[in-house]
Design brief:
single chain; 260 residues; two-stranded antiparallel sheet; 5 helices; 13 strands
């Protein structure tokens, strides 16, 4: 279960962008190009609000996610739980559905009541739907009970069978656009797996470069790198220093559905 939870980073962090968090020119693109040679967390700013996506990401999609490479920079001294087990997912595509929808605004009061969404509303990820879809794709239909965004878009709780939970809290993020129209996002979040005998806490950074395609099959492609860092509570924290202890590289394809 632990090794499968490690690879859920895409669903947990999909959609975390604000225009004010502009990254230094070229920094995110350079990090993606330097896979397996990351030395520290990227430059990010505190996360506020929800991610606003480009309008070309609106709609319902079938995403094919393929783990194409992985690395343990501090091997053999430090290896995260499940790293070796994750090798079985290399070049094994996993498909799941996602939605990107107009953002809802709310009327304040005793209850949160969504207002009618207008056509000019910003586009955001349907976090609960996307998280549940991908979690079940990796863990199985019966293994995942629910995914809730509670209450901030930057806090997500995945409830699993046997009283297990995965809590992800976005801490910081950054964005970048490139001359060839790639839309790159990066965020750092805290990940807590609890309910087991020994709760596990770490820090995860996910950097993704999206690019619209001229056709609908696929309509969007993306390169993604997820890096795992030790938390200060880990006994190997000072030994690891600023370096990640695991890196996972993915290729993503977004295929349009009949609802687009």
């Amino acid at each position: 279960m632990m090794r499968k939870l490690v690879i859920l980073s895409f669903c947990l962090v999909i959609g975390l962008f604000v225009w004010t968090n502009e990254a230094k020119a070229g920094e995110l693109a350079q990090r993606l190009a330097n896979f397996s040679q990351w030395e520290r967390l990227t430059s990010t700013q505190p996360a506020n609000g929800d991610l606003i996506y480009p309008t070309w990401m609106q709609g319902e999609w079938v995403v094919k996610s393929t783990l194409v490479d992985l690395a343990a920079p501090l091997w053999p001294d430090i290896i995260t739980p499940g790293f070796e087990g994750n090798r079985q997912y290399l070049n094994q595509p996993v498909s799941f559905k996602v939605k990107f929808v107009p953002e809802k605004t709310y009327i304040t009061g005793s209850k949160l009541i969504p207002r009618i969404v207008n056509k000019s509303a910003a586009i955001v990820a349907d976090r609960a739907y996307n998280g549940l879809s991908l979690a079940r794709a990796y863990l199985g239909e019966d293994a995942v009970i629910s995914v809730k965004v509670d209450p901030s878009p930057n806090r997500q709780i995945t409830t699993l069978k046997n009283n297990l939970q995965l809590v992800s809290i976005v801490a910081t993020r950054a964005i970048e656009t490139t001359p060839d129209d790639k839309y790159i996002t990066s965020e750092v979040f805290q990940q807590l797996f609890k309910g087991a005998k020994n709760p596990y806490f770490n820090i995860v950074e996910s950097t993704t470069a999206y690019q619209q395609q001229p056709t609908k099959q696929p309509a969007i492609i993306a390169d993604q790198v997820t890096a795992v860092y030790l938390s200060p509570q880990d006994p190997n924290y000072f030994k690891a220093g600023t370096k990640p202890v695991a890196l996972y590289k993915y290729k993503l394809e977004f295929h349009a559905t009949n609802n687009n």
